[in-house]
Amino acid sequence: MGWVIKGAVALLLVAILGVLALLAESRARGRDAKLFPPPGRMIAVDGRAMHIRCLGQGAPTVVLEAGGGNPAMLAFPLQDRVARFTRVCSYDRAGLGWSDPAPDGRGFEDRARELHALLAAAGEPGPYVLAGESFGGLVARTFARLYPEEVAGLVLVDAAEEQFFFSKLSRFQAQRGQVKVYALAARLGLARWMIVHQPRLAGLPPGMALADRRRFAALFSRPAYMAALPQEVEAYERAPPEQRLAGGFGRLGDRPLAVIAHGRPFTGAQAWMEDGWSAGQARLAALSTDSETVIAARSGHAIAQTQPDLVAEVIGRVVSKVQNN
């Protein structure tokens, strides 16, 4: 019976450690709210508070649309560069960053309409140049389809392309299990520890300051963030069949378009995404009769974080085209 007693003691110790970790993480979240207030403005949209940060002067206004599961904070270095030559806004989709969570069942159109309402409530008029990264590319294109008169140009940064993504939807759906594991790790404080003390393993941009890592950890430990991650996958699942084909999210006519694609292949668990990615980027470039394609030779998927100068330069070229039209 000795092994039974030892096993029971071990389980009890694990349970105690788990409870202590939960309590410590709960206290840390309480401190986060005081230490890391939103750097932008909190605007009411549909009864929920959404975070938006706008800088610079000039027109057209550039709107940065982050990749899947990414808070706007990751785009701040890029935003600061774009603000040198025009007005630029970044924001947090529902549940991400400092924005309040939203109920389940929302698709890409819901997200585009929320962005439209947020910009209007914040007093940020168009026309806009939308810069969408990865998942954000489909949000930006949905916005352009719903509000074509308000979109003067687009920049798609290693953006999701419908034919590619929907042909591999089951692979992305399989990531729900990873989200659950992350949620548990975040509740126990493990995600916070990794972001602060092992930023490279957490996939953060190299050279991120300790203060920024702590702020980032605070955002990635929020319960709202854990709920928002599977909701982003759900947006793909709610897309109707006609949108799952090439060009299904709408074409862009002769509006200026720049497509920035990664130069370093996907590796590790994402290596399977490399097959067919470049063809998808070519289909994106064909959405407009006035387009250019740029290869970010030194970057993987997170181009806006690893080469913000390049992305800002490309955005600047699209802004100049809009100004000269």
Please give a structural write-up:
With 325 residues, the chain is of the alpha/beta class. It has an eight-stranded mixed beta sheet with strand order 1-2-4-3-5-6-7-8, with helices on both faces. Helix 2 runs parallel beside helix 13, helix 3 packs across helix 4 and helix 7 packs antiparallel against helix 10. The protein is globular and about 50 Å long. The termini are far apart.
First-last Cα distance: 84 Å
The fraction of residues assigned to DSSP E strands is 5-15%
Mean pLDDT: 86
SS-based structural class?
alpha/beta
Low-pLDDT stretches are 3-25
Helical amount? 40-55%
Shape: globular
Structure summary, number of beta strands: 8
**String of helices and strands:** HEEEHEHEHEHHHHHHEHEHH
Biggest beta sheet summary: 8 strands, mixed
Give Rg in angstroms. Answer: 21 Å
Discrete helix count: 13
- The spatial strand order of the largest sheet comes to 1-2-4-3-5-6-7-8
Question: Topology, pairings included?
Answer:
Blueprint: H1 2-35, E1 41-45, E2 48-55, E3 61-65, H2 76-82, E4 88-91, H3 108-121, E5 128-133, H4 135-146, E6 151-157, H5 162-167, H6 169-173, H7 176-187, H8 190-197, H9 210-220, H10 223-237, E7 257-262, H11 277-285, E8 291-296, H12 303-306, H13 308-324
Parallel strand pairs: 3-4, 3-5, 5-6, 6-7, 7-8
Antiparallel strand pairs: 1-2, 2-4
